[in-house]
Design brief:
The protein is built from ten helices and 21 strands. By secondary structure, it is of the alpha/beta class. It folds into two domains: 309 residues, Alpha/Beta hydrolase fold, catalytic domain (Rossmann fold, 3-Layer(aba) Sandwich), CATH 3.40.50; 233 residues, Sandwich (Jelly Rolls). Strands 11, 12, 13, 14, 15, 16, 17, 18, 19, 20 and 21 form an eleven-stranded mixed β-sheet that branches. A six-stranded mixed β-sheet has the order 1-2-4-3-5-6, with helices on both faces. Strands 7-8-9-10 form a four-stranded mixed β-sheet. The protein is globular, with a radius of gyration of 24 Å.
């Protein structure tokens, strides 16, 4: 059957210094051919080093990956390759499976054999691109010289599908719907098969296990033998936790850049921010072209403080001088939210617990608890992991779907969101999650979730602010029994300024998640937001000398500046100029 050609439009015209070779087919070791677009310099004969972007997304559209117009100008070839079973690539789609990972190796080595490649290949990109980058890098293809994940989760279970053991139904549903459409698009392709159904696989595997291990690298990071430039946005809810948790396990030359939080459009910020891409170019020039750009002479870690709008260098992550500070929960003190207090004073023996109800209904009022510190007497610098330990019980007879959602934020004295850059409010710079219960004056910095039956902690793998749950041994929890729970939160990179208050919220439902799994005694017959028995059960949170519930933050004491952060990294701030 002859290969059908499709007249596919590309979103933007190419600049005169770029030549595009469309839909080049690269054979894999089993004969399946993957489609790629090759962007080459219009001048010069080459060969050139190559930047590879490898994902299931349409190769004609770019939103989490390098812009050819920028990198080709500096003497690079940029290759966009779609995984098997998507777009015009042959084969069967398996969502980050072993075959897709093996293809990554083959794509790198195929590129290295082409006359326009000088044998040096890097991989750059975020999210899907970055996950495939990890899966390729642990195989160590000989011509892959460095990678730039910006960012990418290393754990498909904890970071992507079931954070805290809770199904991320809203995001996963939209993601997989879009990916399956790409498997059908643009029409019949000889050699392409119908895809597997990853949504079915995820619903059938609500606990961590082989399905997710195949698609994760958190326990294989030590296999990577090439340099890694890690670019991680503050407070990003899909990738930040697991990417940073795996950073210590990278044993090769590495750098870590914590960039400003830019809402869910971190993808656009990564791809379009001119000074950030100039920093990436310094890394690529060093490792692919052998140019001493000075980047390896700079401190290992650079962190943007979202509370001050300033960059700081550090020598490691997590920071060695971290002081772990507990902020204890105290009983409800006001009729209106926020009800309770949090401070560094341990609770007394006689403090009464706080109670809210569950399940709620979309048609009724929300149910949650909220706590704040008094106005801070001095700046509080937080840079690193965070977690909460608390004690709770429920009157619910069916504890299988018992879930906690915890959020941490910053309230400024004027009741308006903090703007560290002192510029007109840009709504894309304020962290948010789908939660109508969060007051508009709260600047959200962290989030965590935990399905109660997975409360078991593996102490051998846990670290301060990073409790490790196996998500394999669900506990048989009893009603009216007090249990301890530990919830890992997204690391925080923010200075809570003098006069501001730290805000904490606890709830048992969130519109982005589905509390029930397919093996739940209550099944999945109806939306949890429309329960007939709404508000029937009580959730009790204890905070006393016997049950000292507390928030744990990585507080950083002041220290002499290691070195000033210079351009281009210094200029990576909200509102930075974009690539033209």
């Amino acid at each position: 059957m002859p290969r059908k050609t499709y007249d596919i439009s590309y979103p933007e015209a190419l600049p005169p210094w770029v030549i595009l070779d469309k839909n080049i087919l690269a054979p894999m070791r089993d004969g399946v051919k993957l489609a790629m677009d090759v962007y080459k310099p219009a001048e010069g004969d080459g060969p050139w080093p190559v930047i590879l972007a490898y994902s299931a997304y349409k190769k004609e559209y770019m939103f989490e990956s390098p812009l050819p117009s920028f990198y080709v100008k500096d003497g690079y070839v940029v290759v966009y390759c779609q995984v098997r079973g998507t777009g015009q690539s042959q084969g069967k789609y398996t969502f980050h499976g072993n075959v897709e990972a093996r293809d990554g190796y083959d794509v790198v080595e195929w590129i290295a054999r082409q006359p326009w490649c000088d044998g040096n290949v890097a991989m750059v990109g975020a999210s899907y691109y970055a996950v495939n980058m990890w899966l390729t890098a642990i195989q160590n293809p000989p011509h892959l010289k460095c990678i730039v994940p910006c960012p990418g989760t290393t754990d498909s279970y904890r970071g992507l599908v079931y954070p805290g053991g809770v199904f991320r139904s809203g995001f996963i549903g939209g993601l997989l719907s879009g990916l399956l459409k790409v498997c059908i698009w643009p029409g019949p392709v000889p050699g392409k098969q119908l895809p597997e159904n990853p949504l079915l696989e995820m619903l059938a595997h609500p606990e961590d296990g082989p399905y997710y291990w195949e698609r994760s690298v958190w326990n294989r990071m030590d296999r990577i033998k090439i340099p890694v430039l890690n670019i991680v946005p503050a407070s990003q809810h899909l990738h930040t936790v697991c990417h940073l948790k795996s950073y210590l396990d990278i044993k090769t030359p590495k750098k870590l850049i914590i960039i400003p939080w830019t809402h869910m459009v971190y993808m656009r910020f990564n791809i379009e921010c001119l000074p950030l891409n100039q920093q990436i170019l310094r890394w690529l020039d060093y490792w692919l072209k052998g140019i001493d750009t000075g980047i390896m002479d700079e401190p290992e870690v650079a962190i943007y403080d979202n509370g001050t709008g300033q960059w700081h260098y550090e020598n490691e992550y997590p920071l060695a001088r971290t002081e772990w500070k507990r902020f204890y929960l105290h009983q409800k003190t006001a009729v209106t939210e926020p009800w309770g207090a949090i401070n560094d004073v341990p609770p007394t023996e006689n403090e009464k617990p706080d109670i809210y109800r569950y399940p709620i209904s979309a048609l009724g009022p929300p149910q949650f608890l909220a706590y704040t510190t008094p106005p801070l007497e001095e700046d509080l610098v937080v840079r690193g992991p965070a977690s909460i330990t608390f004690y709770a019980s429920t009157t619910c007879e069916n504890t299988a779907d018992w879930v906690f959602f915890v959020k941490v934020g910053d309230i400024s004295p004027g009741g308006k969101p903090l703007d560290p850059m002192n510029k007109p409010r840009d709504p894309t710079t304020k962290p948010w999650w789908t939660d109508a219960w969060t007051p508009p004056d709260v600047w959200l910095w962290s989030l965590g979730s935990l399905k109660a039956k997975y409360r078991e902690i593996d102490e051998s793998r846990s670290k301060p602010g990073q409790p490790w749950h196996s998500f394999q041994n669900p506990a048989d929890l009893k009603p009216n029994t007090i249990y301890e729970f530990q919830v890992e939160l997204i690391p925080i990179f923010n200075t809570f300024r003098k006069g501001h208050r730290i805000w904490l919220q606890m709830a048992c439902q969130d519109m982005e998640f589905d509390n029930q799994d397919v093996f739940s005694p209550s099944g999945m017959a109806m939306s949890p937001w429309l329960y007939r028995n709404a508000y029937k059960d009580e959730i009790t949170i204890y905070h006393s000398s016997d049950y000292p519930s507390h928030l744990l933050l990585s507080v950083i004491p002041s220290a002499p500046e290691i070195a000033p952060v210079k351009a281009p990294l210094r200029d990576v701030v909200p509102g930075a100029p974009s690539i033209e």
